[in-house]
Amino acid sequence: MEKVLNAVLEDCRRYTLEGQVASYIPELAKADNEKIGVYVAMKEGEFCAGDWDKNFTIQSIAKTIFLMLAAIDNGIDVVKSHVGVEATGKPFNAIDYGDSVILKEHINPMVNIGAIAVCGMVKAKDNEERFRRLMEFSKKITGNPDLEIDREVYRSERETGNKNRALGYLLKNSGMIYGSVDELLDVYFAMCSMKVNCRDLANIALMLANHGKNRQGEQIIPKADARFLNAVLITSGMYDGSGEFATTVGIPAKSGVGGGIMADCPNRMGIGIYSPALDRKGNSVAGIKMLEALSKEWELSIF
């Protein structure tokens, strides 16, 4: 299996030259677009290739963490009563909402406006506790007790995150979040700035593939929540490229503009990928190519 991983990675390395690193967050523009790594986690073992241990910020993949913890705290039905699950067909950071009031049908948990709302559903007495709970949960699902925030990226996100602030105030105006918008966004920015590597992502993905259980057999999230999350990832996890990804790869996945992709093949494996050169939709170019090749080689598609 590791031989296949290395062969696929080397074959897809050329695609790192076809994309561009994210630049709208200045710190992300410093990434080396030639880095590429992959990690596969299975109950039977682990396999890796390339720059799998390179740390990068989780970015939008944090949206899966918000959704998991919000579902645990409130139940799936309550989450769905606040935030819809339909694909928007818009870029992940779209702000072109024509109505003065945002309805749940307009958004889903995998675009920024929906993720901010879901982040606010994580129960806590204040945003400091909300951040602490999210970090503790992240350490649990990755199996990595040393997770930390990239302070430079966090500061960069805070300084340039005016679009997200606008989305936050739209949500507050619509009664979808309460309390301080800026304090909630501090939590959101910090979580998106969490440093991870391919193994961390693969461990989260393996839990989703294993119906909410980690490799040790501990039920981390309810089976129904894992099924719900996988369904959301299929329909909207790859931004407005989710439909194409479903047809070419065919497994639940979530991407981030830091270059990461977390993907899971139910009942089989979790996959973590890093390659920061992105396409116009914000997805890793080489990362998608690797998943296409692995899906074909190992017959991963759920369809």
Automatic annotation (TrEMBL):
<feature type="binding site">
    <location>
        <position position="60"/>
    </location>
    <ligand>
        <name>substrate</name>
    </ligand>
</feature>
<feature type="binding site">
    <location>
        <position position="164"/>
    </location>
    <ligand>
        <name>substrate</name>
    </ligand>
</feature>
<dbReference type="InterPro" id="IPR012338">
    <property type="entry name" value="Beta-lactam/transpept-like"/>
</dbReference>
<dbReference type="InterPro" id="IPR015868">
    <property type="entry name" value="Glutaminase"/>
</dbReference>
<comment type="subunit">
    <text>Homotetramer.</text>
</comment>
<protein>
    <recommendedName>
        <fullName>Glutaminase</fullName>
        <ecNumber>3.5.1.2</ecNumber>
    </recommendedName>
</protein>
<keyword id="KW-0007">Acetylation</keyword>
<feature type="binding site">
    <location>
        <position position="257"/>
    </location>
    <ligand>
        <name>substrate</name>
    </ligand>
</feature>
<dbReference type="Pfam" id="PF04960">
    <property type="entry name" value="Glutaminase"/>
</dbReference>
<feature type="binding site">
    <location>
        <position position="157"/>
    </location>
    <ligand>
        <name>substrate</name>
    </ligand>
</feature>
<dbReference type="GO" id="GO:0006543">
    <property type="term" value="P:L-glutamine catabolic process"/>
</dbReference>
<comment type="similarity">
    <text>Belongs to the glutaminase family.</text>
</comment>
<feature type="binding site">
    <location>
        <position position="239"/>
    </location>
    <ligand>
        <name>substrate</name>
    </ligand>
</feature>
<feature type="binding site">
    <location>
        <position position="188"/>
    </location>
    <ligand>
        <name>substrate</name>
    </ligand>
</feature>
<dbReference type="GO" id="GO:0004359">
    <property type="term" value="F:glutaminase activity"/>
</dbReference>
<feature type="binding site">
    <location>
        <position position="112"/>
    </location>
    <ligand>
        <name>substrate</name>
    </ligand>
</feature>
<dbReference type="GO" id="GO:0006537">
    <property type="term" value="P:glutamate biosynthetic process"/>
</dbReference>
<keyword id="KW-0378">Hydrolase</keyword>
